[in-house]
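USER: Please consider what follows.
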Amino acid sequence: MPLPHASDLRALAEEIASCRACPRLVAWRETVALEKRAAYRDDTYWARPVPGFGDARARLLLVGLAPAAHGGNRTGRVFTGDRSGDFLFASLHRTGFASQAESVRRDDGLRLRDAYVAAAVRCAPPANTPTPAERDECLPYLVRELELLTRVRVIVALGAFGYAATWSALRGPTVRRVDEGPVPARRPRFAHGLEVPYGRVTILCTFHPSQQNTFTRRLTPEMLDAVLARARALVSDETTTRPTRGARRSRR
């Protein structure tokens, strides 16, 4: 299996950042950059599609929904500069996947270790709700990241939208490397703690670290830590025996 090349991921990131395929998303992300929040009035917004980022040799891939209007759309890095990112990176730091517990801008020194973070949709959508057509337009980017991240063994889907996008990307005709083992015939219903063996990859599901979930404690730090600890165990021991069919749910 060829080793992943950071230069290929950088080239893909540049392609993603120049995309203008979805008129509604282009208009929204650029409008938000002009009508800034008062707290960010001195910031220059990225206002473009936000590529994935992380370790080119990652064995863990995390797939979220889309950049936040005043988070990734402002900073140019997914989950950076918003409350969802604060929650996620703190957990990644506690479980050894991130060099620091918070990320506020692209050049703040954060490094991901053995992990790569991407989104199902690369532009900030109005009301944080992409359309099915916008999701499908972005899907080839996730497929190509999967093709380039040849060491990935675990995918953590952050929310039901990320889970659906992950499933569609794995079903893509060009993503053949994961089909070296049993593949479920149907997509199990999303649930926090769901674990789905898919060929050589294991999909783990968690509620999205949005404020809607974290403020209500539908998702707690301990719950997210448990999912990422399971991811750590799986990537640290690739010989771990896994179910050959179906899916498992966490007993949490």
